[in-house]
Amino acid sequence: MSLVQEIMTIFSVTCALVFAFNVVWNRTRDTSAGLHSVFNEAEPLSFLNQLPFPIWIKDDAGRVTYANDAYVKWSGLFPNVDDVNRENTDEVTRLSVSNPETGTVAWFDVTPIKIGQSNGYFAENVTGIVEAKSAERDFVQSLSKTFAHLSTAIAVFGRDRRLEYFNPALIDLTALSIDVVRRRPTLFSFFEHLRHNRIMPEQKQFATWRQKVEASLEDIEAGSYQELWTLPDGSVYRVSGRSHSEQAVVLFFEDVSPEIILSRRLKANMELYYTVFDGLDSAVLIFSQDGKSLFENALYLKLWVNDKTDIIQNSLSEEMDILRRATGCADLNSSFAEKLMAQTGASNWSLDLRLPNDTQYTLGIKRLNGGLIMIRWTPLQNALPDFKLLKNKSVA
Hints:
By secondary structure, the chain is of the alpha+beta class. It has helices at 3-27, 42-50, 69-73, 127-147, 168-174, 178-182, 187-196, 206-222, 257-278, 298-304, 316-327, 334-342, and strands spanning 55-58, 64-67, 93-98, 105-115, 118-125, 153-157, 163-166, 225-230, 236-243, 249-255, 283-287, 293-296, 347-354, 360-367, 373-379, 391-394. α11 packs across α12 (334-342). It is elongated.
């Protein structure tokens, strides 16, 4: 049963019991005959006794003048409620009772109802709700202990968009004070504090910054927010936002500075390697150990491809067949390619060739350590008379 349904049930029962209590009170003849009073009509008594809710009435002296069967079942287990809510009789009190036979504990919400000079009470069993909330608290505490050791900062905002939960990493990564997070800032106020602490990319104009934050908040609500923040001190944070059930949103902050620095360094090194290869006087094509094309420099594209933006996507066997057709050298074939891929260690082949445009090159095919295969075309000054494979030198 949902929370709304439970509230409606309690409301309906309250209305019914107000009517029932008035009937019971008007029908009471003898207040000293024990827990059950004498009625002219048995129907109200039967009705109240069949209800699963404990119901009882006390007079102004604190004596129980009526109790239904559910209350009798728990007789002696309820604490004295005559001192509870003496001044405010419309306040619901949550009480616990123990069952000595089973050793179990039950929880009840006791609702007092003023009836003339007496006080009527009915109790709703909320044990399931209490146990569910207890389990939820235990689960949250368990998660809190787990999140406390994470290096990723977590900030959970409830449906009112106020900070509900955070882990210690949030303080470490954002430099927010404990006082700020304890005041449960709104999501927008949270971003303002980050800006004040310079934990956001700098925006000179506040209006520009506000527009960017508002756009980010929309992405967070949609659950699609993810950005890399480069901070003024050079640190880089990966920030992502996800929407969750109960209309909550969660922000994650991860310091990826070492990862980004390494990535940028590798990118710079690759650009350096490309620049060096493109500056060679030779056309170079690199294949993997299994014969897949990995890299070609600008001169190779100029030599064999009309459009310099194209990429060599041929396998080693296919490239050998193309070279054989272009040069007429029968030794350059797929079998030769398979031989190259099957060998281990470093090996070197060289071949002087004349291309159809009457240019002369030395074709070098080299197997590198690690299994890479490099094809290299170096221009020659003097033509050679044939296209025969000159030598196969093993340098392993």
